[in-house]
Amino acid sequence: MTSPVGGVSLPSFPTVGGVAGLGAAAGVADVAGTAAAAPAAGSGEGFAAALTGALDQLGSLQSAKDALAVQGTTGDLRDVHDYMIAAQEASVATEVVVTLKNKAVEAFTEIMRMPI
């Protein structure tokens, strides 16, 4: 799902508790009440697929922000609010993905410390 902002289509980014991107990784309902796409248990595509999807969406958000920045620089941007919203969405999504990565590394490190 995309929403047009300033002539640029921004991807819809599921949210949980107001934090963008966590809904897709956690497989829980987004703000609108529809369930985020989550692979079925046992399908072999759990966390890796969710993380790949989150990274793809992050790339889309960054691209949309960059396109709006170019429009602002060339004077084609009609409303600066569109750029500010896209920039904030990209910033929050980046923070969420980095936090998820850090927690995954922390969990892996903790598992490696467990005695056999």
Automatic annotation (TrEMBL):
This is Flagellar hook-basal body complex protein FliE. Signal peptide: none annotated. NCBIfam families: fliE. Its main location: other. One of its GO terms (molecular function) is structural molecule activity. The keyword RNA-binding does not apply. The lineage of its organism: Bacteria, Bacillati, Actinomycetota, Actinomycetes, Geodermatophilales. GO terms for biological process: bacterial-type flagellum-dependent cell motility. Belongs to the FliE family. It comes from Geodermatophilus dictyosporus. One of its GO terms (cellular component) is bacterial-type flagellum basal body. It comes from the Bacteria. Keywords: Bacterial flagellum, Cell projection, Cilium, Flagellum. It holds the Pfam family FliE. InterPro entries: FliE. It is found in: Bacterial flagellum basal body.
